Amino acid sequence: MSTAPQAGTTAPSSPGRHWYRDRGIATRILALSGALLFGIVAATATGAVGMNRVADLNAEADEAAAVQRTVETARYDLLWAANWQNITAWRARVDGGAVAAAPDGDNVTTYRGGAEAFERLFDLDRSQLDAEGRASLDTIEENWAVMSDYNDQIFTLWSQDRLDEGDAVSTGEKWDVFYVLDQAMTSLVESVDARVAQTEAEVEHAESETLLISLGVAALAFVVGGGVALVVARGIVRGVREIRAGLERLAGRDLTVRLPVRGRDEIGEMATALNTAAAVMASTVEEIVASADAVAASSEQLSASSAQISASAEETSAQSGVVSGAAEEVSRSVQTVAAGAEQMGASIREIASNAAEASEVAARAVSAAETTTATVAKLGDSSAEIGNVVKVITSIAEQTNLLALNATIEAARAGEA
Prior knowledge:
The chain has 2 domains: 15-246; 301-416. Helix content is 86%, strand content 0%. The chain has helices spanning 15-21, 25-95, 97-100, 106-119, 131-159, 163-170, 173-251, 266-360, 365-416. The longest helix is centred in the last third of the chain and has 95 residues, at 266-360.
């Protein structure tokens, strides 16, 4: 009797886990590699974005620093021009106003060089300044125009040797304008310095933030990749261990082993194959056991038949003994018949001899007749004995045929058994 192979039990799982377990090992490894690659790409992209932001902030910081240098230079140029004006006032007292304040003289030329350098401040890109800085620059430009007019008047008066008038203008309202100009210049410097400090802080913050985000993304990628690797490794290792345990049980002749089929991957296929092999082997063993039982039954039947045949053989042997005895009796009867026949032949020869003698010797007829009568009487007795022998032989032959028929029937039964 055979049994159908039993399929392995499928472990219940959620649709997502079922979909995952149906994926092959190569697909899982590729998924792991993809997760790690995604993490690397994400970390790299995050770092690249952060570095771009840092680069932009560095560019802003460089621009703010350039503005800062321009403002610092302008402040120096303003002080340079104011100092040369003061030097010209002193030289006018020493060398005379016409010499000291000559339009093409060194003093006026040096002053105008400083003034022109200072005026480059007004070419500054105002978008690089905050609102306070732009307001300060507007104040500086407005008051510088007024101060420049005052300076031109002073140099003109000094060049005409009108030194007292020139000094009066220089120490009058011009100083009020210069004070406002200097305060606005200080505010502009502070605004630009604050802008530089802010951009530098933003750069440092962006660098730290980029580093932290990159490390965070890398750590997240490591955790996700490690988690995926752990899941993949545990799934493969657990499946391999279950199959190894199943093979060990199968090697230990436990044909009832059935492994849970957790998916349609290579592990699941091996579990299904092992379950099928165990079921087929169990079915084969059951068939072998059934065949062994049938053979045992046949063996018992054969033993019974052998005993019956042995009994029949013994009976046949006994019957053979009877037949042998009958044959001996027949042989003895045949010998008797042969003796009678020989005696009959002797009698016949004697009759022939007597007949020959009767023809020659008539005298002996009576004696020969008597002898012949006696001989005929003996022949009658011999014929009766021969008839009896024939009956005995016929009876023995019938018994022999009956025994042979019985032996044939028994042999046929033994053959059927």
